[in-house]
Write a structure and sequence with these properties.
By secondary structure, this protein is an alpha/beta fold. The chain folds into 2 domains: 200 residues, Rossmann fold; 169 residues, Glycogen Phosphorylase B (Rossmann fold). It contains 16 helices and 12 strands. Strand 3, helix 6 and strand 4 form a beta-alpha-beta unit. Helix 1 packs across helix 16, helix 2 packs across helix 3 and helix 14 crosses helix 15. The longest helix is centred in the N-terminal third of the chain and has 17 residues. The two termini are 21 Å apart.
Length: 388
């Protein structure tokens, strides 16, 4: 009689510096519950085990910088690529006290594996894990099409990346090719299948005959979504004989949401305005084209839904690099600025073949089973390491 495989406990760690890292971790956690694998998972934000002040400073500083000083963020992104984070004596002292609770929690949980969707959970304590009796192998799951040097650390057992170019970036920086897998960025189970367009339109409550544009601002309301909508409306007004639907997601930006809900749209435009949503998969199924920044999770979700992107105002650094790969693969277009968005959108409306070509190109970047593939790989590695 075959022996029942031992259940493994995977600890999933993220960091609330942008919504994508949390979403990727949640994707792994939810997929594990449906995977059929002999595993159980728990997901934590590592900042919950530091001081409240530090968590607030760390999580808000990123949002403030990319909103107010994106060029500075781009500079820092490039700078740390050449000279990655090195701990000074002062930072070491701070980390020693700030992460004591965090290290104690890791030891008490005693996982079989630690999977990180941000580099902070491991680079902050990598030199002290074994000293504190934490011997579980640590895995890194990158959350952009790019793979920055900050992700690289000797503690990492294996890296999971989105694209062959991401794998090349890591190997060119000294990571052994055998320690890298191209799996994609983990997505929630809702992105594994594509709902037929008529059913998707019915679910969202829109006219199935309309050409549908989805405008996203991101979970935290990052981006000039009201200005983007203005450019989209100007473009669609130039096609009075054609009917359109514009789905607008404002995230947590209640001020812009309220303003757009009061806006009078032209007669040929059906507009639906949303705040923070949990059904982005349904909105993507209903859309013909996405207008958005090129965040790693949003881009991966769109590719899984075979939804081409018009990329607008990407954050310098990781989003710009995501945009480069999407455009190179032919799965989207990059608008140089807000007025240029009108040109890109009008060109697609005038030439439907362009959109069909882009939809076919998304297939090469789609990785809908990434979460399942990552969990399966981690389980194989853990089981192999534990063979007597």
């Amino acid at each position: 009689m075959p022996t029942k495989p031992k259940e493994r406990f995977f600890l999933i760690l993220s960091t609330s510096g942008g919504a994508g890292h949390i979403r990727a971790a949640e994707a792994l956690h939810h997929t594990a519950q449906q995977s059929g694998l002999p595993i159980r998972t728990e997901h934590y934000d590592c900042l919950d085990f530091t001081s409240k002040t530090f968590k607030k400073i760390y999580s808000q500083s990123y949002l403030e910088m990319v909103n107010r000083l994106p060029e500075l963020w781009g500079y820092l992104y490039a700078k740390t690529e050449k000279n990655p984070y090195k701990k000074t004596g002062l930072i070491k002292i701070f980390d020693h006290f700030n992460y004591q609770k965090y290290l104690a929690v890791l030891k008490s949980l005693n996982p079989d594996a630690i999977i990180c969707t941000h580099f902070l959970p491991y680079i902050s304590v990598s030199s002290r894990l074994k000293k504190h009796g934490i011997t579980a192998p640590v895995f890194a799951v990158t959350t952009d099409f790019d793979a920055h040097k900050l992700w690289i650390d000797p503690i990492i057992e294996h890296y999971f990346v989105h694209h062959q170019e991401s794998a090349w970036q890591l190997s060119s920086k000294g990571v052994a090719e055998d320690n890298i897998s191209v799996t994609g960025i983990p997505l929630l189970p809702q992105f594994k299948e594509i709902t037929p367009r008529p059913k998707a339109h019915q679910t969202v409550g829109i006219n199935e005959k309309n050409f549908t544009i989805l405008v996203l601002s991101g979970g935290f309301g990052i981006g000039k979504v009201d200005e983007i909508v203005e450019q989209v409306v100007k473009t669609l007004e130039a096609f009075p004989a054609q009917s359109f639907t514009v789905l607008i997601v404002c995230g947590k930006n209640e001020k812009i949401k309220a303003a757009l809900e009061q806006k009078q749209f032209p007669k040929n435009i059906q507009a639906k305005v949303f705040g923070f949503v949990n059904n982005i998969h349904e909105l993507m199924d209903a859309a013909d084209v996405l207008v958005s920044k090129s965040g790693g999770l949003t881009s991966s979700e769109a590719m899984a839904k075979h939804l081409p992107i018009i990329i607008i105002d990407p954050i310098p650094g990781q989003e710009s690099r995501n945009a480069d790969i999407i455009v190179e693969q032919g799965a989207g277009w990059k608008a140089m600025d807000l007025p240029n968005l009108q040109y890109k959108l009008a060109r697609i409306i005038n030439n439907p073949a362009l959109l069909e070509q882009a939809k076919k190109a998304t297939i090469h970047l789609a990785k809908p089973t990434a979460a399942q593939d990552i969990l399966s790989s981690v389980l194989r590695i853990v089981d192999h390491k534990n063979v007597p």
